[in-house]
């Protein structure tokens, strides 16, 4: 059987490898090299997967987790780790079960697959952009490039989403899918920073909070909460816990939502109040503005003082119990109004994509067009950070490659 794979990212590399175990494969990549987006994953280190059981893996999938059950159980993280490590790339597992090459080089992962493809005789066409997918009588039969037409028995679309367009993710797969009759769920940014209203975040720019509790409210309804690291930026907030939050709220109207930050999540109100009283006792003759250095990062102090309404020159021994309670409340619940998410081009991944209702979850084959398959980020599937999204690409690519 002749198989054409469109896109040489994680899903395409795996799909081409899996198909090459039994079929004749041609891989089309419009960039000058394979795996261009892989090179920037995990800050260039490539968080290749998450070393967890399939059941735990599915819990970290945000969009359409049930659709991915078959693919993840058929090709779990351990299978990928074995494939990569047995082909010359030793791996290591870090915090949160994140798996990286021991070398910390993403290029080793791409190189591993490139070697496998060449060993299996895959025809790799770099700098070759597919302009259209040919379908006849409800079946995919080939692809067209600028100057050639290729005939195939099976075509696997692995073109990614819209994130990081300089890597080649420019929405080609959505266009191919739409022409073939597929529904495309509107793409949205996922794992992306959050724009905030007001100016306090600008004053806090560059401040990293290692252990912050965050909650997001729509009206009075809490729609997300988590604990972890975050960063204030010129536009608002970013960092791991914020990226996760963005993927939980990106299907809703985010403008007007509230971000609440607990600056002391390890302390309940009673314990925190006792801590404040100890600090106040130690600094009882100091101005309020000079009594918070043990309690808060330096950059946060003016913002908290401003929110409290307490005169910064007021002596600590003159601060009332009511004012102390106001301070405590701010430390446990400092609020910012959300304006929007950062653009989809800045997202680590793209939410939305080809509707999985029209895809066979076992094989990744279209239910509308025989011989047409989709894998990776082009599908309406996405997950939290930690290697899950890259593994989704590998698992769906594997399913598509071995099918048929």
Structure commentary:
The strands form six sheets. A six-stranded antiparallel β-barrel has the order 13-16-15-14-17-18. The longest helix has 15 residues, at 388-402. Helix content is 30%, strand content 27%. β8 and β9 form a beta hairpin. The protein has helices at 10-20, 54-59, 65-74, 77-85, 106-119, 172-179, 200-203, 240-249, 269-282, 300-308, 321-332, 388-402; strands spanning 2-6, 24-29, 49-50, 61-63, 91-94, 98-101, 123-126, 130-136, 139-145, 149-151, 154-157, 184-190, 194-196, 208-218, 221-232, 236-238, 258-262, 334-341, 349-354, 372-374, 382-383. It folds into two domains: 2-189 and 351-402, 3-Layer(bba) Sandwich (FAD/NAD(P)-binding domain), CATH 3.50.50; 193-342, Helicase, Ruva Protein, domain 3, CATH 1.10.8.50. The termini are close together. The chain contains twelve helices and 21 strands. By secondary structure, the protein is of the alpha+beta class. The radius of gyration is 25 Å and the shape is elongated.
Key attributes of the depicted protein:
404 residues, alpha+beta, FAD/NAD(P)-binding domain, Helicase, Ruva Protein, domain 3, six-stranded antiparallel β-barrel, five-stranded parallel β-sheet, 21 strands
Helix content: 25-40%
Give the N-terminus to C-terminus distance in angstroms: 9 Å
- Output the CATH topology of the largest domain: FAD/NAD(P)-binding domain
Spatial order of the strands in the main sheet?
A: 13-16-15-14-17-18
| CATH class bucket of the largest domain | Alpha Beta
Main beta-sheet strand count, sense and barrel state: 6 strands, antiparallel, barrel
Quaternary structure type: single chain
Total discrete domains: 2
Q: Based on helices, strands and strand pairing, what is the structural class? A: alpha+beta
Give the full name of the CATH homologous superfamily of the largest domain: FAD/NAD(P)-binding domain
The CATH level-2 architecture of the largest domain is identified as 3-Layer(bba) Sandwich
Relative strand content: 25-35%
Cα Rg = 25 Å
Based on Cα principal axes, name the global outline. elongated
- Could you tell me the number of beta strands? 21
Mean pLDDT: 95
Low-confidence regions:
none
Q: Please work out how many helical segments DSSP would assign.
A: 12
